[in-house]
Amino acid sequence: MGERGNGILDRRALALLVLAAVIGLSWWSIVGSFNGDADNPGLVDDQSWFWDPVEQRAFSAPSLSNPPLESPWGNPSPAVLFFSCSECDERFPGIFISLTPDMKAELDAKPDGGGAVLGPSHPGRLYSVDAQTWVEADSMEAANAKANLSAELAKRCPGSLRMCR
User: Fold this and answer.
1) What sign results for the dihedral spanned by CA atoms 93, 99, 105, 111?
2) Sequence-distant (≥ 6) Cβ neighbours of residue 32 within 8 angstroms
3) How does pLDDT run across 114-150, given as a tens digit for each residue?
4) Would you kindly state where each structural domain of the chain is located, as residue ranges?
């Protein structure tokens, strides 16, 4: 019974994390303020965060940009969702979002840029929890990665996890 109860709790935690990520992606440009620092100044309304995995630094670019983008340091960089255990004063990268090369080329060719970072998942979207290992967004591997991330975040921020802008 305890294992079954934990499985239900894990699925609920995963569902809440996925729901938070979808809402965050859909409303990223209006979810509130982002407390900046020297490396991560505040965003303007039509900007999103991207992550240089080599430099381990964030930078902003237009929200309708299709990742990966070339960072200011010359490295391919996915979009990133930040999380915090407090009021976003101290935050950490949690979910990385990119596109397959074919999907990026297809969306880049659209007049409006495609808006790959915002909105619901679609074929060609990739997720990662470490900006190294990528899985198709709608795959079982992505669901497992999100479940593992959910468990890790629950341990890191018991009862106080929040997504930051």
Assistant:
1) negative
2) 165
3) 665 555 667 788 888 888 888 888 888 888 888 888 8
4) 2-164
